Amino acid sequence: MNRDQSRDLYDRALDVLAGGVNSSVRATQPYPFFVQRGDGAHVIDADGTKYIDYVMGYGPLLLGHTLPDRVVAAIQSHVSDGPMYGAPTEVEVELAEFIVRHVPSVEMLRFVNSGTEATVSAMRLARGVTGRDKIVIMQGSYHGAQPSTLVEGGPESAAPSSPGIPESFAEHTIPIPFNDEETAERVFTEHGDEIAAVLTEPILGNHGIVHPVEGYHQTLRDLTEAHDALLIFDEVITGFRVGGFQGAQGVFDVDPDLTTFGKVIGGGFPVGAIGGKTEYIEQFTPAGEIFQSGTFSGHPVTMAAGLETLRYAAEEDVYDHVNALGRRLREGLSDIVADRAPEYTVAGRDSMFKVIFTRRGESQTDACSGGCRQDESCDRFESCPKNGADVDAAATDRWERLFWQEMLEEGVFLTANQFESQFVSAAHTEADVEETLETYKNVL
Ligand code: PMP
User: Fold this and answer.
1) N or C, where is the chain less crowded by C-beta within 10 Å?
2) pLDDT per residue over 25-63, tens digit each?
3) Taking 90 as the threshold, does the pLDDT of residue 1 lie above it?
4) Of all atoms in ligand 1, which is nearest to the CA of residue 141?
5) What is the 54 CA–ligand 1 centroid distance (Å)?
6) Where, per the database record, does this protein carry N6-(pyridoxal phosphate)lysine (predicted)?
7) Ligand 1 atom with the shortest distance to the CA of 238
8) pLDDT (mean) for 330-349
């Protein structure tokens, strides 16, 4: 495949951008393809090659690349009225009202500009509200490029996972394995009165897609309630993606105190939000004392894009479409994996999917062969990856260096590492899905 234009652009980029990119996951090997434009469910690279796209901007593009006319019109009218003002606008109120109407645990919101900003502010809020410093996070979870969660290790010995983060930040972070109720209970027994919050993705979406075991989030809810700590769901990926308008918290029937949003609610523009109970959200300045602010927060163009995207999704049954295609992909992949690579796992839910290049523990060949799926209909979850460490044990090199490359050669653009979720959009068709399954079959 000819990628001369991309190679030349990368060569220029290396002179002026760190690693030639503006987000580390984009630096694919041997060099990234540069995108010229999107088209429905496809992207077209700088050399004119077209790929079926399941990266979808790493999640924001619920409607795909070609936005419906009414979404484009809403965006354009806010662009031509002047992009932003430093004063409030009606569209911010409308998007907040839409979210509050649909997510029962969210009574109020503060908009910000990225998922990272949302988790930073949610943690400050939890610490300010409780007067405590420690935050419990899940190993393998991702909450953005922020110092308090770029922490690795376990409950006994946490350390920054990047240079530039003071050791003292990690002292306030307690990473525990996802789905391990015993460790969660132990950590609360030992540190209950120092813990401000538990922060977790309801479904790990940045580490292979891992589902909670039955009752796990309820255990976190009970523990936080018993110890006067807050439960924060990071729904930056799952919000308005999994469980339709109610989010993953609706699926698992657990109400967190705070929820962070991003991605889909900005309709493809930079966004984040912290939502939750009034008694907490009102503690942000200027209603309360806990500082929160931002030049671009509630940006009218972003708000219009998000609002019109969600309205369109409601009126056009977008979730029915993307979830049906997601299910078809997982079912088809399960059959292919059972046949070609029974040691692998098909994971996902609704419009999220991934093939993880491992099973779990010793049951590699029995319980899972036959195509166990780690999704809403899987009854053999026991033998699927359950936490970050299980996914770390996957054949990540094979995924990145062979499988991903080969899929790209065959015209299918997947997330370039083993860990990140892939997404179906409203623009994908049954034909795209069948073509994709055929490609998976050949490449696997
Ligand atoms: N939280 C989660 C669960 C995420 O998946 C991400 C980004 N992938 C973030 C936070 C950070 O969001 P952003 O990249 O918009 O800062």
Assistant:
1) N
2) 999 989 999 999 999 999 999 999 999 999 999 999 999
3) no
4) 3
5) 17
6) 263
7) 3
8) 92
